[in-house]
Amino acid sequence: MQPVPLYGDGRNVRDWLHVDDHCRGVDLVRTRGRAGEVYNIGGGTELTNRDLTGLLLDAFGADRDRVVHVEDRKGHDLRYSVDWSKARDELGYRPRHDFTAGLAATVSWYRDNRAWWEPLKRRVAP
Known about the structure:
Elements (H helix, E strand, L loop, with lengths): L3 E4 L5 E4 L2 H14 L12 E4 H11 L7 E4 L14 H7 L7 H14 L1 H11 L2
Parallel strand pairs: 1-4
Antiparallel strand pairs: 2-3
Protein name: NAD(P)-binding domain-containing protein
Pfam families: GDP_Man_Dehyd (PF16363)
């Protein structure tokens, strides 16, 4: 397994959500949102990049010593906090996928579908 790069100290916080919840939220905005309005779609799970990296390494049975801290991007925001209450209140949006279960399902999908993604990885490798 290759080293896992992590920007800076990994304290950057993000709101994580399952891709199916994101797509469903976008479709709700498309079909039920008011023209010209802005709707944020969130997952309700805020984690640091360091914490998410640890969860992924655990899911793959890899040691955390694989993490290599790399220089942070200039101007990299420490926190992206998403207020998705408007999508919830006006459109009835709520995430359906529990973060932990969704992450496990995503990891399983990648394990079970190597034939799909490995050729893509080889095409973009230097």
